Amino acid sequence: MYPMVKPALRRGWRDRQTVQFGVTPAHAVVLGPVDTATGSFLGLLDGTRGMALLREEGRAMGLPDGHVDALVRRLAAAGLIDDATAGGPGAEAIRKRTAALDRLRPDLASLSLVHPEPGGGIRRLASRRALRVQVRGAGRVGAAIAALLSGSGVGRVDVMDGGCADAGDVSPGGLPLESVGDRRDAAARRTVRRAAPDRAPRASEVSESTPGAEPGLSLVVVAPRDGLAAYAPDPAATETWIASGTPHLYAGVIEGTGLVGPLVLPGGTACAGCLALERADRDPAWPRMLAQWRSGRGCVPACDLALASAVAGLAAAHALAFLDGELPASTGARWEAALPLLEWQSTRITPQRDCTCGAIGNTEGEHSSGTREPQDTMAG
Question: CA 198 to CA 192: how far, in whole Å?
Fold first, then answer.
């Protein structure tokens, strides 16, 4: 083990014997009492020394035998220690790709806080490279989501859409101006490649059990240019995903309202069919109105660029949290914000008995909320 205090956490002394790692309550840890020699020793935990050398350095600084090991254990238990050599073969492969790792260092620093065990951050980063995500839609929202996922280290990001890009599809985080007139899917693929910190992995690198096989979809992000298709998704379009157990997340903008969610875990959380049934139960006229909106004359999309970018960022963050093994707040719920106030509000989507998705009675994805004060830990 080559321990290092997580570089993402700022350090400050609360008094002469108490040091705080981190600023925000979500990750701040208070350590004390800390004597002068131990405080100086903390600077040696930078990932360049193994435990044997650290013990020697500790003895040279007057620390008693066993103190270094006890300190590292307590710091690790508090989520403050990373390991510069941990993570397995996938992590080691990333470390060897120095240019890609330099691009991803801020992501790695963030992951090391969310996953506090030593090596947890780079292990998730290595896992992302083996994943395949499909984004349905290459407009202002979809293309930006695809670029964000690719830039965050997801190895394969496929984008599906039809037609040719027009001027209204262009956005700073998505399709560039020179893509106007090109096929949307081809333009989006170029955007994804430009955003990627590294080349896409070969099939042989991500499928050890079946060399050469195409990796399965880890997630589908439904971000259609027509915001109505995200706000009121067609249950028939999701039948294949429900049957195959493919998780899918909705995102879009319609009439100045941005939405992220629900993230659907087939058989575990409410799906598009549940959403349709729930709305029809609340408003008997909903199916009739929806049929008219879907078949009627199109309108100019009210897709504010800043709102579209905010939706893309939030959707990508929720997608990454799920891909990293968490259940984000959009699991079985929808987040919405409307211009001009942009106050995000969440609505839980309830599984319906008459829906065939099988999610009724399942509590997967339910969340509790609360605040957190800085953690206290003693390392005498």
Answer: 11
